[in-house]
Amino acid sequence: MFLVKIIPKDPSFVPNKTQILILKKLLEKIYDEIKITVFDNIIFHDCGQNFEKVFCNHCHIEINDFWQEKMNQDYCDIAGFKLNNFITPCCNKKSNLNLLKYEKDQGFSKFMIEIIEPDSLISVCKQTKL
Length: 130
Ligand SMILES: [Zn+2]
Known about the structure:
Number of domains: 2
Number of helices: 3
Strand order of the largest sheet: 1-9-2
Order of helices and strands: EHEEHEEEEEEH
Shape: globular
Number of strands: 9
Bound molecules: zinc ion
Helix content: 10-25%
């Protein structure tokens, strides 16, 4: 199964109920199967088996081990991810888990749209800003 997940740039952003209904109707006109989810907390949406590396958003050094440590520290079963700021080990600059650069794309959010088997419309999705 091929799946495209779309999340807002702001991890805490959740559209209101009317906006979600409009969005759902619009997407259902384009795609056969979509799913819209609002989570209780900010969660991490990984890219599954395509996950490769995590880089500092300032100096672009790979920081996979540091990232794993911060993922464990930042997550709470009750509140999800807090996305607290930290100082990067490579260049001593302020960052957070959401600002780091991921290869392949993945991220954090409370709101998510999933498009199941989107066929050739991926390029349209990448160009669309929600
Ligand atoms: Zn750095």
